[in-house]
């Protein structure tokens, strides 16, 4: 009787993980669209490729999450503690700014510079999508679906799961080229994974991700505009 019960639970969990894997593959498929577009390079140069991909990922992933995944374990909103949120956000800021300073590498990524140089409404569309839209579905995929998949495959090993998820998170950010950026992304992802584990949900990681992107984008924009205004 116990074996049968275990078997049924295992099958149900395996089905849930299969659904999460399908969501992850959908995300990967949309992310790699530029490689199959004839005008991909031209769209990227004009600043149009990023909003196209982000919009597609959002309109496919978020509704599917809401319909099929939001009530699953670890995929709901979870709890929210301001003290935990503040500590983790402070850690993210240290990773983003203190680590590059200590390593002596403070140059801005070429993709980030190209975004700042867009100007006009294209810049603001990209900035809004980067700050408010991308973090929502990225956390659904990485701290939600992929975390659940890896947690299942790794026999409920939280640390191993966080490491694998963070490696994947850094690798799929194809717009970046510098190794130190991938290290920063990896460490940031570990912090977001800690938020997911602590809160048992996705609200805290999403809000941390949004606030991080807002601060980073704001500082980069200010750094780009100050020399222009002083000149």
From TrEMBL:
Q: Which residues does UniProt call coiled coil?
A: none
Q: Which domain of life is it from?
A: Bacteria
| UniProt cross-references to InterPro entries, sorted A to Z | Rce1/LyrA-like_dom
Q: Does the keyword Cell wall biogenesis/degradation apply?
A: no
Listed under GO biological process in this entry are:
CAAX-box protein maturation; proteolysis
One GO MF term on file is: endopeptidase activity
Q: Which residue windows are transmembrane per the record?
A: 16-36, 48-68, 80-98, 118-137, 149-173, 179-195, 202-223
Q: Which UniProt keywords apply?
A: Hydrolase, Membrane, Metalloprotease, Protease, Transmembrane, Transmembrane helix
Record domain CAAX prenyl protease 2/Lysostaphin resistance protein A-like: where? 123-215
Q: Can you say what this protein is called?
A: CPBP family intramembrane metalloprotease
